Amino acid sequence: KSVFINSSHLFRNLSHNKIAAIRINLYNISIMNIETREHDPLTDNEIRDYKPIKSPIESISGIWRFVRPAGYRIHTHSLPDHLLQLVLKGSYVIRANEREYTVNAGDLIYFYAYEDIQWLRNQQEVSFYSVGFRSVIFKPIPFEQRVFPSTDPIRKAFDRLYKASSLPRESTEFSLHTHTALLEILSEIQALVKPSSKEYANLQIWW
Q: So what's the pLDDT on residue 28?
């Protein structure tokens, strides 16, 4: 418990030596209160077994917004790590992993580690957000679930992610806001994507 003392009243008419002695005693009392206050310390076993909490994001390689004209075609490869895209407008057909995907506005599409991608066709202009990031904890999404509808929280988080990408690159705000937004996206995706194929039957999708 804290005790408040009116020092001007206490010290009135006291010698310097007595004032000094009182101050020393008050200091010792405050130290004693700090050392004896109630707390719940970790046991030796708890300290020994404690493991640091790792972030699923090691780094973000880039945040972009692309616009593709009608009739666009390209044969390319994805980034060396994870790549997520949110389609804002239009629809298109691509081929990846020996599969053909139709992607519509509001869909998320995922690629991993230099995957071969063929943009086959789109009849109207397409725009989309794209974010690349490195993570060992984050596991590849199963091939049959690479395209799936987004949610409102995911779309809002992508808006925040892209807005944060305009902040100065070396600023603390840039790192905090981009990582926070991406973590929100991954957290939402965790509830949407589940292992289903034999290849991923025993795989934990995120962490």
A: 52
